[in-house]
Amino acid sequence: MKEQTKEMTAAEMARGDVTPTENQGINYPANKVQEGLKRLQAESKIDAAGADLIFWLYSYIRENGFSYNGAAEKTGMSGTVIYHLIHCDYAAKYDSVLDKVAKFKKIEEERAKSKTLHFVETSAAKDVFNVCKAALYDGMPAFIYGASQTGKTTALLEFQRTHNHGTTKYIRMGVRWSKRRVVRELARACKCFCETAHSVDLEERIYNTLTDRMLLIVDEFHLALETTTELAAKEVVEFFREVYDRTHCGLVICGTKVAETGLESGKNHLLFDQMRRRGLVKLVLPDVPRKADVNKIAKEFDLDAPTGETYAGIQQILERFGLGMFVKYLQKSYALAKAEKRDLTWEDFAGVANGYAELSHPKKEH
Questions:
Q1: Fewer CB near the last or first residue (10 Å), C or N of the chain?
Q2: pTM higher than 0.90
Q3: CA angle 213, 214, 216 (to 5 degrees)
Q4: C-beta of residue 202 within 8 angstroms of C-beta of residue 235
Q5: Helix or strand or coil: residue 8?
Q6: Which residues contact 145 (CB under 8 A, 6 or more apart)?
């Protein structure tokens, strides 16, 4: 959405609300929503079930502190639609949009049954934190490489959360991102984006925003090397080198080992060498987490450290799918045990893991 003025109209102030394009929490009072829902029911535009869905959506957004933009990203509906649903003045028919709300509600209720795993400081996470600190405090470029699903992104996001206050900027590269797209996304991360500004203007805004007391984290960097053309990849690498040279900010580039190959021995290695001369911190994470880390995660689910065949099975999951899948299996197992009102066991975990394994290897019909 295009940037809008921050000033509120008299009507908006009277409602105690903001426009659907504002990045602020929603302040529309609950009693106004209920009054509007009763009116819609009286007009036969929605029934009681529809009213319940809209009020659930309103409550969900308020409880989580979402803005209209934030709610749009979370639900997959536009911020304008959500705005009009909450204000009970949606112009189109309600059936289709209420179906979307119902589907979203079902997904959220299912997810609520799973155990939320708080950040676990694994040995890999500690290493990532140390690299980020070195890049921030010493002002050097740093590179983190590792296989998918090894906890890189989780650790980087936690570092940003705990070292933020404007200090740490994080962007995640996307598929086929050109330099222009990278500039726009970085400008958003730096809070200096303007929809009408040209790319060159955005670059200058970025250079004027980042300082030598800040850290820039660029995640999933391998996507810039393997999903774009050679020229586009070169432009992206060159842009981040320019950002570092112009601002002297700390820089962490993270990706899979595809990024390591592409930057150190691929076609962009000469650009990489120019950054290397400015000082370099490099971390290569192990493909499989250590036993101590597995034990830490198990403890979060009130499970004893796995041993014997149980641990052997976990090792196979970690080697094939990574840490992320191991955690998802634990969460699914926890939800099933919770539904039966009992404690989680490793037998539950094995049942879930075996069930997914059978799905990926269906039996042949004779």
A1: C
A2: no
A3: 150
A4: no
A5: coil
A6: 254, 255, 256, 257, 259, 260, 282, 283, 284, 285
